[in-house]
Amino acid sequence: MRRIVFATGNKGKMREIKEIMSGFDIEIVSMREAGVEVDVEEDGTTFMENSFIKARAVADKCRQAGYTDDIVLADDSGLVVDALGGEPGIYSARYLGEDTPYSIKNAKLIERMEGVPEDERSARFVCAIACVLPDGRELGAEETYEGAIGYEEKGANGFGYDPIFYLPDRGVYSAELDPDEKNRISHRGKALVKMKEILARELGDSGN
Q1: What domains are there in the chain, each with its CATH number?
Q2: Which residues in the chain show pLDDT less than 70?
Q3: Which residues are catalytic, by number?
Q4: pTM for this entry
Q5: Helix, strand, coil percent content, the chain, rounded in steps of 5
């Protein structure tokens, strides 16, 4: 059976990925679980460029290690705040430093949005997923998750910027959503479903 190696070490992200892609008859592992370590410089100018930079780098490492049948997926995602000119954007993970807790990052964004009226607090999460197949073919999928920047942190079901991402049409914060509901409507959830459908067409419904 083929294996999907996802270019991340983020446990929260891997949990979402496995939940969303459940039922797809392929083992899904993180690059660390696959024993692949690579330091990738994400120097692209868009989410999709960065996702392909990561996917290609991890695919190369897999091939070098003898994992010639592995399918490699990578995502680049982030928060785009309209009132801040699109920040933090592709630098979302590195905003205020990669090792800075998201509680601090979230507090800073709320501070920067102080005084911004409700109708100008629009924001969205973007997720771009890149895939490199064993034969070298490349596939991509991108989706968004629309909302607004809230006035406080709320909820315990999400991670990253979820606690400050408010969904006006639902009246809740992203981190307050049931995980299944979030996976259905989120940027990563929709992008993964799209990629799952693309892979099913490319590999056959079983994924074998």
Answers
A1: 3-203 (3.90.950.10)
A2: 1, 205-208
A3: 76
A4: 0.89
A5: 40, 25, 40
